[in-house]
Amino acid sequence: METKFIKWLRQRLPEDSRSVLGLGDDAAVLRLVGEDCVVTVDMLTDGVDFVVADVEPQRIGHKSLAVNLSDLAAMAARPVAAVVALALPREEGRELAVGLYEGLLPLAKRYGVAVVGGDTNTWDGPLVVSVTAFGRPTSRGVLTRGGARAGDRLLVTGTLGGSILGRHLDIEPRVDQALQLMSEYELHAGIDLSDGLSTDLGHLTGESRCGAVIYADRVPVSDAACTLAESSDDGHTPLQHALDDGEDFELLLAVPPEEAERIIRSQPLDVHISEIGQCVDVEGMWLVDDGERRPLEPGGYEH
Amino acid sequence: METKFIKWLRQRLPEDSRSVLGLGDDAAVLRLVGEDCVVTVDMLTDGVDFVVADVEPQRIGHKSLAVNLSDLAAMAARPVAAVVALALPREEGRELAVGLYEGLLPLAKRYGVAVVGGDTNTWDGPLVVSVTAFGRPTSRGVLTRGGARAGDRLLVTGTLGGSILGRHLDIEPRVDQALQLMSEYELHAGIDLSDGLSTDLGHLTGESRCGAVIYADRVPVSDAACTLAESSDDGHTPLQHALDDGEDFELLLAVPPEEAERIIRSQPLDVHISEIGQCVDVEGMWLVDDGERRPLEPGGYEH
Q1: B246 band by pLDDT with thresholds 50, 70 and 90
Q2: Higher pLDDT, A61 or B19
Q3: N or C: which end of chain A has fewer CB within 10 A?
């Protein structure tokens, strides 16, 4: 429901010159006199983003910050600080909170994030964690969803699909990779894959007012996607998992052709980066599979 | 439980030169090169901070931002922006979200707050609202809890107690009043009364490493405190409600004597400001009532 709701909300928000980039992207850019501060917030809830009964709180804490850092990475912003708000169940709330921070703080340290505040509450409901993170753009500015042009190549880091088997909790946000690419190459647009490739590609092309063609045989399918396809009998292929599963938290980038070629040839990152398709003039998304071109429907997770 | 938990957390947070003021105050001050950004987060939950079944969502939305603006007021910071994270119950979640923003946005407009982002989720639990707000300090810097000295007079805006009868939802944050006092007078310390006078006074004196004496006959008892004392048979007097009830969201300030005298004499605000006591050398809190001096125990709300 978020997409529809954001549309509604956008119409109700007054124009504000300080809001350089408002709703509709991975994070907000806030113009403080002479300084841009990138802000993002993600709220995670028990039963949706994790299951408290099944998972160590440390992994929940890690994920709570990691998803925010992934948003900053999608903007090519350098993480600076975060604040953490918790609604804790009454039973063993303190142990839970301690565990959460034990998972969150090492990640914060690794990415130079100062945890500068928070709000810790107890209530009769299940666990809710809301992290707001702040970043600084590089000297090249921020990377938005809206800059892709027809002809741009679509690149994706890592492998996709099946994160539900565990990786969605232990994700490593692509912060360093985004900063490295931003400093060394010309990038047109970027998004992190939180809702699934087919859905997030729709967000990117929608904001950029272009379309996209994806080549099925170039999509980097993860081992987890194969495992999931084998173990479940819903008929979903590994490719479908790679296209539609949420929470990969990899980067999807739109890059001019000659830059894309340089990136793919030199493979400058510590993770593989694949060219999976390109942007086209006509709005819409298509999948080329076995020589056949058919519409690609957003099949990912809608919040 | 928050106090204990913050203590635990404080010991675990590495020193960070960018965190000018970290946990333990109403808001965090974040040093961006050459610019300070004041950040505060408050998470409100159904059954604790409001009851969805009994209250229009507009009032919940208003309160969610107002409590954050009250924190900024306590720091004498000028509100700039906010991000809003929601966990909505599945049933009528959209209507609820719309109502929340209908209450929140007019308040944001009134105080020049740009709502620059958010995260809207649906889940099987009750409503949770988490707002992170940003402010800018005045040219005189921020007002902290830790600057009070022995001899300072303790001033409080408005009247206290009984906010549970309705005012806790419709609070008007003391933003303009704080900015006005900060620009025209020398203030030593400040806090907003969210947990109750006796508890928040403890926070202020604790951070300032001083004590305080309060004069019972000078505490501005609200009409609601009297109504509550009359209607309930728990034996609490109106004064007890004024001392211990949470969510007044008035300002408590520590001010040098000569400045306090100027403020009290000229009454520069659109709300009455009362002198209720003073800071003393010895740590601890006392209430002088009917000529008798007895210890004042923190009786307010602990999150």
Answers
A1: very high
A2: A61
A3: N
A158 and A280 housed in the same domain: yes
Report d(CA A55, CA A258) in Å as an integer.
45
Using a CB-CB cut-off of 8 Å, the residues of chain B touching A47 are: 123-125
Q: B145 in a domain, yes or no?
A: no
CB contacts < 8 A, A to B, total: 210
Span A7-36, average pLDDT: 55
The answer to whether the pTM exceeds 0.95 is no
Split into its structural domains, chain B has a count of 2
pLDDT of A69 > 90? The answer is yes
Contact yes or no for B41 and A87 at CB 8 A: no
- How many CA atoms within 13 Å lie on the side-chain side of B244? 14
Tens of pLDDT, residues B133-178:
988 888 888 899 999 999 999 999 999 999 999 899 999 999 999 9
Provide the CA A144 distance to its chain's centre, in angstroms: 12
A24 pLDDT band, cuts 50/70/90, is: very low
User: Is B109 part of any domain?
Assistant: yes
- Domain of B192, in residue numbers: 153-295
Contact assignment for B32 to A33 by CB distance below 8 Å: no
- For residue A31, the model assigns a pLDDT of 55
Residue A291 buriedness (CB in 10 A; 0-12 / 13-18 / 19+): exposed
Closest CA to A219 of A231, A201, A233, A194: A201
Average pLDDT (A152-158) is 98
Q: Are residues A176 and A102 in the same domain?
A: no
Residue numbers in B near A130 (CB within 8 A):
41, 43, 85, 119, 128, 130
Mean pLDDT score of chain B = 89
Task: Tell me the percentage of chain B whose pLDDT exceeds 90.
Answer: 70
Residue B279 to chain A, least CA–CA distance (Å)? 27
Kindly list the residues from chain A whose CB atom is less than 8 angstroms away from the CB atom of residue B9: 101, 118
Cβ neighbours of B5 in A, within 8 Å: 94, 97, 120
Residue to mutate among A50, A96, A123, with most B CBs inside 10 A, is: A123
Which residues 110-129 of chain A have a CB within 8 Å of chain B? 114-126, 128
- Establish if B112 belongs to a structural domain: yes
Tell if the CB–CB gap between B134 and A30 is shorter than 8 Å.
yes
CB-count burial class (<10 Å; 0-12, 13-18, 19+) for B264: middle
Interface of A with B in 25-54 (CB under 8 A): 27-30, 32-35, 37, 39-43, 45-48
Residue B300 lies in a domain: no
Out of A78, A107, A137, a domain closes at A137
Among all residues of chain A, which has the CA nearest to that of B93? A1
For testing contact with chain B, the best of A94, A116, A120, A122 (most B CBs within 10 A)? A116
Where helices occur in chain A by DSSP H, the ranges are: 2-12, 57-74, 93-110, 175-184, 197-208, 223-231, 238-244, 257-266
Nearest to A44 by CA among A303, A232, A258: A303
Kindly report the number of other CB atoms within 10 A of residue A256's CB atom. Answer: 17
CATH number at residue A239: 3.90.650.10
Q: Which of B205, B195, B301, B303 is nearest to B253 (CA)?
A: B205
- The A residues from 87 to 106 touching B (CB cutoff 8 Å) are 87, 93-94, 97-98, 101, 105
β-bridge pairing B77-89 and B114-123? parallel
